[in-house]
Design brief:
This protein is α/β, with parallel strands linked by helices. The protein contains 11 helices and 37 strands. Helix content is 20%, strand content 35%. The chain has an 8-stranded mixed beta sheet. Strands 4-3-5-6-33 form a 5-stranded parallel beta sheet, sandwiched between helices. A hairpin with a 2-residue loop joins β31 and β32. α1 packs antiparallel against α2. The two termini are 52 Å apart. 36% of the residues are buried.
Length: 683
Amino acid sequence: MSGQIIFDPLLPLIPLAVLAVLSLGGIALAVWRGLAGWAWRGAAAVVVLAALAGPSLRQEDRAPLTDIVLLVEDRSASQRLGDRAEQTAEAAETLAARISARPNTELRRIEVGDGEGDSGTLLMTALTEALAEEPRARIAGVVLLSDGRVHDLEQVPGLPAPMHLLLSGTPDDWDRRLVVQNAPAFGILGEEILLTLRIEDDGAVPAAMGEFAALEMSIDGAEPQLLRLPVGQDAQIPVTLPHGGRNVLRFTTPAQDGELTDRNNSAIVQMNGVRDRLRVLLVSGEPHPGGRTWRNLLKADSSVDLVHFTILRPPSKQDGVPVSELSLIAFPTRELFMDKIEDFDLIIFDRYKRRGILPSLYLDNIRAYVEDGGAVLIAAGPDFASADSLYRSPLAEVLPGRPTARVVEEGYRPEVTDLGRRHPVTTGLEEAWDGDWGRWMRQVELTPERGQVVMSGAEDRPLLLLDRVGEGRVALLASDHAWLWNRGFEGGGPQLELLRRLAHWMMKEPELEEEALTAEAEGQQMVITRRSLSEQVGDVVVTAPDGSQTTLGLEEVSPGRFETTYQGPEIGLYRLASGDLSAVIGLGPAAPREFEETIASGVALDPAVEATRGGIRALSEGLPAFREVRPGRPAAGRGWLGLTPRDAYETRAVRQMPLLPPWLVLLVASGLILAGWLREGRR
């Protein structure tokens, strides 16, 4: 039971102050005039003013509340290294028993696991959430059991009591880790890229560890290359990407005896391989409206180097004009089609026919160029059906269709075939254009001999044929009227999108491969995609970093596209296989935050602990005792840590009694006024 005097004025403070001033003035006037009863009258005024102030005696029935101590246990991945998990669990049980045994004390135990994704150890966030559920006035102290590797220091809460850190681990702990200092997101194919790596040794490193360490590097799961790097120094590793699209590079330094973990001995870097410049040779047989369409398409792409020749005057033309008066550039046939043909990624023949400019030897060289990995696209005009057709040359061995010598001169609307709806060059092409496609007016009749027919034209005849020949690719477009779409004839059509996809497929861009197995990672989950021209595909086998295999079925989500999802159980390199196709993907960051630094240290938490006058101790030195300390005093010493008693209480009942009831005020004030009057009447 405790009591205190409180005031609840019957009048506002300003009127009450005015009355007090008037009363004081009246007393002063009485003294000045020499009235003998001024003291009694003044006492009566004081009683009245005191009554108007409303004094009361407030008594509270209080029950003491226990102090609360928070014991925060770090159960993150870094706390499972070595003997830390057992060390922390044993210390937690002992400390819990000691704290619970203290009089008037309650214990709250909070366990903190791994953060979501790669967020690390969110110890301060967990502490803040625990404090939000407890009254601050009862918090007597906070004890952290951790290795000190905390990744949310910006969330350190303000504490009304000491915070202490008990570090796990031993003085003999040491670890080797691989750090990727610099790795670009993409690299130019055929050019050397420099990656900066660093091998670091932390903690009590054994003297037997040398100044150099081995490093294994593999690309897309291939046979690793062995390198040697200096320990503790940045080293530049030259890498040449083997193909376009995603390249997965894995770097590993072998585990050493006695180190805490080998989880940070590996790093995965995913880089996209891109072409620096795509060199395209466009050969136009004769000027026509579609020639500018090809030129505009290729020149619009800043990554394309275009070499364009239009044959304006064939050698057979005899018009009597002296050669000295011609301003035409001699066609460098030997240089282009013999000496430097390998420099081009794509050769386009637009309405070209044999006119004696390219002899059979050069055309045969183009055939060999395709078989060795080159690409040729033919936009066929009426000449393709004539005796001067390119099909009547060594190129016939790589062309997917044979002309029948018939040219269809009638309007028709190009359509995507059933197979074309599955092929990445033409899939979704109908949805890429708002409205109906305009008609084309000419088509060369072809007889397919190999490859895939992805578009059809008049009377359902083959319009666009695609084929792989050796290492290269060939496309045959049986019309020279694609330019009508570009001009908006009858509403136009997706001409630029079709030609762009066609050119990129021929240049082997990974996203346009018709048979492909890929995966995209989102955290620890991957979306596996299988593209195929077949209506059904087999299962995909996922091989985890530990060698375990999981077989997954694929579901068709769109024509030619099958997908499934897989939740990876751990960070690392995963191998995918479906039939003859294979792929690799890395899940997780190059260096998980939990394993960036593994040696226990209280440096990061030292400012927060010091701000509360707490202490940092190593569990390997033994468990400290607990003492009571007053607020603001040092809360750590040799072999002990302090807890601050809060003396909190709960108010169960409140009683309030007026000190000057009205009847008493009236009686006392009247008596004082009467005494003053009698005193003055005797004079």
